Structure formats: structure tokens, C-alpha cells
Amino acid sequence: MRKTSEWVSLGHPDKMADYISCFILDRYLEHDPLTRYALEVQIKDNFVTLGGEITSQANFTDDELALFVKIAVAQIGYTKCYQNIWGAENTICDQDLVVSSHIGQQSPDIAQGVDASGWGDQGIFWGMAVNDPATNFMPKDHYLARKIGQQLYDIKYAGLDIKTQVTLFDNEPEEIVVAIPMLPKHSEQDVANAVKFCCDGKTNYKLAVNGTGKFVKHGPIGDCGTTGRKLAVDFYGGNCRIGGGSPWTKDGSKADLTLNLLAREKALEFLKKHPDIQEVHCSIACRIGSPEIIVSLYDGHLNELTSYRETVDPAAIIDRFFLRKPRFAQLCRNGLLS
Fold first, then answer.
1. H or E, element range at 3
2. What is the pTM of this model?
3. Were 165 and a residue from 6, 41, 68, 205 both cysteine, which residue would form a disulfide, CB within 3.0 to 4.6 Å?
4. CB atoms near residue 42 (< 10 Å)
5. Helix/strand/coil (H/E/C) assignment for every residue in 293-316
6. Are residues 178 and 304 in the same domain?
7. Is 306 part of any domain?
8. In what order do the strands lie in the sheet with 172-179?
9. Are residues 105 and 245 in the same domain?
């Protein structure tokens, strides 16, 4: 059986957009832990657009928001020094960004449900766990794609805008694909060595690096980044259904992050109580304005194991996962389920 998953680095334009939104949310939470936040980001060339709804005791000016964007982009690594290496025709620089903001307040129709201790939206959220402690109970293909990509990004073998893809056959790597910006001074052998390291020294797989033969124009110059476009990357690759929206553009009350974390927790708990099961999937459904959730657990073939209704306090779940604290950028950087 073959399984395939991909991963993208923080330097990929879509993940840049996610990280910018998370970084700004953290700044609001530093001033007001009860901030209501739903902010989408798009970045193309040197232009960044912020659009959404924010209700908070913190009131940042457009200039302050623009500064937050530039700091976030610099943290990712797109600085003047980096641009000098690659050329302005090939990548961006934090200092050159032009930011426009289109932000209103949360709808009072939504607020009245959240204020009444209900969830801020309806939705279906999925989590899973596999019986393999060596991969942090994650699917092996997704685990390896992330491990390889993170290694290449952290060690800075070449450029920042990295995509990795791993195909397993009978649970062993069969093909590994890497897209990474490279200049003539960079070596494909360095990439191959990093992949080998992440695969515990094994080399019995096909490795493809930069399938077109050239990858220099990258980041928002070569692509347009938009929040919420990498859900499979953020969660379980191709191994699990995906519900809800992006976990990165909203505060905990909207449930897109909170109940995905809870679904993963419940899948893990069930797996550890039933070690004979190799894979557990959990779905959670909620509705706006209500604290009640519907929980269903399945095996790897999506045969139902159990289901039940449960009343939970959204505020308590948000606090359990520390989602009133400024940790969203860290989660986005390190991986939601790492």
C-alpha cells in the first residue's frame, strides 16, 4: 500500500501568510487574552493585505500592524541580507513591504453566542493517532515529510521556500521529492545528505530535487501566499479527513484550532486505552452558540468504534490548550501536532 504526504516550510508563501496572522494575534493576546480574532492575510510581491474582524481591548494603528507584518517576515528569514544573496527579482525583503488593512469588528450575532459560553461557529473537526511512538503517533509519511523539510529549513542548506513530499510503500520510503531554491553554489548532495539523515541513514528510495531543473525565483515573488491553503500540511497529510477551517487565522473561541486539538487528544487517549488498534480517527461536531459537541471515534477503515454527545465549557478547553496566551506563532512555526 502506498501513502503520500507533503509539507511546506515557513518560507512558503501560504505558510508566511499563516504565520503573519498568528504573529499579529499574539500581539493582541499580549494585551487582551479575550481578544476575538479572525484575520486573513494575502502576500504577493511586496504587498500584504490584511482583512477580517478583530474585537479587542488592544487598539493597534495601521502603522503598528504594518510593523508586526515586517517583524514576522523578518523572523521567517526574508531580510535585506537574504535578498542581497538572491536578488530582488527572486525574493522579498521585510523592509520593502507595503501593508494595507481592512479590518472590522466581530459580528454581534456571533458575539452573543460566544458570550453565552458557546462555540463561535459550527463545524466538523478531525483528529487521528497511529500506534507508532517513534513518529509521535503521527502517520509516518507525514512525519517524514515534515522532518525532512524542517531539517532543510532550520539548517539553511539553501533557500527558505521549501516543499517536501514522501511516498511510502509498505511503510518504507519509496520516493522523496524536494523543492528548494538553489543557487549554483548550493549542492544537491547536501540536500541528499539531509534526507538520508532524516531517514536514519537509509537510501533505498528515489530522490527527486527540483523537478524542473531550476528553482531560484521564490517566496511571494514566484507565488501568491494566502492563509488557510495548507490544511493537509497542517494536519495529517492525506491520511485523515479535514474539517473546519484554517487553525491559524482565528482565536480559540472559533473552534478551528481548539476542537482540532481536542479531536487529536481524544484519538490519542482512545488509542492508548486500546493498544490492539493500529489507527484511531476522531470527529467532533459543534454548533454556534452551544457548548455541546458530538464525538465519534473510528478505526483506520472508518468503522465506528463509539460515539456520544458531550457538553464542554469552551473557555475551559481554550484554557487547557493555553490558547489565551501568545503562542500561536510558535504553534504555526513548529507544527500544530508536533
1. strand 2-8
2. 0.95
3. 6
4. 18
5. EEEEEEECCCCEEEEEEEECCHHH
6. no
7. yes
8. 2-8, 163-169, 172-179, 206-209
9. no
